[in-house]
Amino acid sequence: MSLTRRTFLAGSAAVGAAVVFPAPAVAARPDTGVAAFAFPLSAVRLLTSPFTANAGRTQSYLQFLDVDRMLHTFRLNVGLGSTATACGGWESPTTELRGHSTGHLLTALAQAYASTGDTAYQTKGNQIVTVLAQCQARASAAGFNTGYLSAFPESFIDRVEQRQSVWAPYYTLHKIMAGLLDMHLLAGSAQALTVLVGMAAWVKFRNDRLTLTQRQNMLDTEFGGMNEVLTNLYQVTGDATHLAAAQQFDHAEVFDPLASNQDALNNYHANTQIPKVLGAIREFHATGTTRYRDIAVNFWDIVTRHHTYAIGGNSNGEYFKAADRIASELSDTTAECCNSYNMLKLTRQLFLTDPSRIEYMDFYERALYNHILASQDPSSAHGFQCYYVPLRAGGIKTYSNDYNSFVCCHGTGMESNTKYGESIYFHDGASTLYVNLFIPSVLTWSARSVTIRQDTSFPEAGSTRLTVTGAGAFSLRIRIPAWAAGTQIRVNGAVFSSPAAGAYATVSRTWVSGDVVDVTLPMALTREATNDNASVQAVKVGPIVLGGLFGTSNLTALPVLDPASLAPTATPLQYTAGGVVLAPFYKVHGQRYSVYWSIGGSTLVAHYPFDGSVADASGNGRTATLVGGAAYVSGRSGQALDLNGSTAYASMPGGLLAGATNFSVALWARIDTVTTWSRLFDLGTGTGAYLFLTPRSSAGTARFAITTAGSGGEQRIDAPAALPAGVWTHVAVTRSGGLGVLYVNGAEVARNAALTATPASTTQNWLGRSQYADPYLDGALDNVRLYHRALSAAEVAGLYTSGT
Ligand SMILES: [Zn+2]
């Protein structure tokens, strides 16, 4: 949740025969450009699974929440009395986002009612709607324009329009509007629709007063899915002013590059953008304008392929980073949960648009199990929720609480955990049923007078069983995930097919009551490498990401994993490796963990590609710092660190190579002016203990030196020549015990087999600067790598040949 985009704050689901109720509100306008259709949430009943456990805790929370506390600031905003205790956190009476959670609550109550049939949720939702209607009716008495409804004054809208500082007023109004629409569509509230239509008219009134430029400037402030909810409303009412209001929130700065399939997402607040694109696909469904569809499809492809962690989440510190930066962006603030909530909503709409493209539901499954399911605290009776899911090694999940958090992800968490039945089954409007997810459930397909019961312990077992009750001719289209090689389908015990992975398998038949379809879904143990570092990998079983359990042990670097040591335990989906237990990440709570591992014996300590960033691509999080005017310049590959020869250098974190008797440093250098005693690198504690490499010593040649006793104690490797000026040159020094070897352009140029010195600590670890008052480096450095082992001659030659 962006704070004005300048900064950010650092089961008891009913089981049994499903009853479809109430008659869902009928959309005035059918969606165009769709080839699959959702069932009403009320047509699907969940059977016992991890999802019902999560849903049950959230349901308890929905029952627990005090309506008057959730309406306190709404009442005060229009001069109605309230004696309720004020909420805390992001719902405190002074927080500019106040009111957003009440919108989430409306959606959650509507969904819980539709999912379970328990009218207590409907009643509670109706109570809130009634008070919101009272507050809206007092708008003019409170000095607001007609239709305005919020827990904060309308002056917040003046501020966002006038580009004055304010958090995200339309973001909050979107949550309330979406909640009202859900109360109408899922819980049959006519009053909710009336209030929403009044809000929509107010939105149009506000925006009609602005110029296009003023509106577009305003859209730089996070506004949630205003275009989505207004388009959804248009589909219900058929009122063209609702579509026009939606389109006033089309943000050209974000849509234009996406329409031409450009990835311009770097440094954009992630969860500000996803709802805009969700609005775009709904605008396609409402208008048929293919540009909206292209924006959504391109965005989905870009985000899922180039900005997504193994668990299906995205963003570091809430922001998109440069494409393919994954291992170099592991922190305690990765993978904001709202982002996956919104990505799943987008994915679902794209599935409806192109249901033959199996990547959509493969991704849905990945993010659903590994991010959404994984982000609720199972030890909390009320389903407390993660904000971020840390993906740095040694991270730990932290959670919201009853009344003093109300962060954005707490709100979307209420929603995610009350709609697990929504994407398991779809139909094609005729005689085909999609089976997309392997979640125990019962579908009532009223149009064909059949029920489909799905029994499975997936993902703990790689199989599922579908039982048909009722009769008739129809087809099942079963998702065979890309991970499920070797699938077999049996019908009533007889082998029917062995379908390929990564496609839908069709079973067409005239069904009779009691027919049974068994699907085996072999779940292999695999690893997924990060886009930016092949040796940084996550371990998966089928689609399920495993987390290594580290108890109270914080980690300062990626744990090393020998894949050959992975051994299954008696517990499903649980493995051990090197004394560490790996368990499904969705079950990892209350202790430190690592999702990513250093694989293949790699002992990379840090890797700086300097591609416009000081990020450490090793996955170890050792971000460097630019000092004294250091910048970026075109590099040997991508960009490089640019140093001016007078003030500029880069500082790496302390501790690098401290105490190491086996290590390597490899880098590319393009030296503009070769100055005696300048440094490519110099790691140490000062002039007493260090290890450095200079392009030219006073002896006239390149030199590596290491000492724990000042310059008089230096042990050296002298090259036969100085490093050249003006050309990219690969330089590496390796040390294995007493043997040090210096390489230039992939070939050994000198060695010293009598090294004994090893600095015990390193606190000043610099690129381009000496521990002494020597000249600063004038030139550029690229792909600086440090290892805790000696690279072989072949490995050094490989780095040189690769150009990276
Ligand atoms: Zn959030």
UniProtKB/TrEMBL annotation:
Signal peptide annotation: 1-27
Keywords: Signal
Gene Ontology biological process: carbohydrate metabolic process
Pfam family, one: Laminin_G_3
Domain Non-reducing end beta-L-arabinofuranosidase-like GH127 middle intervals: 432-523
PROSITE patterns the record matches: TAT
Matching Gene3D superfamilies: 2.60.120.200
Lineage top rank: taxon: Bacteria
InterPro entries: 6-hairpin_glycosidase_sf, Beta-AFase-like_GH127_cat, Beta-AFase-like_GH127_middle, ConA-like_dom_sf, TAT_signal
Name of the protein: LamG-like jellyroll fold domain-containing protein
Native source species: Paractinoplanes tereljensis
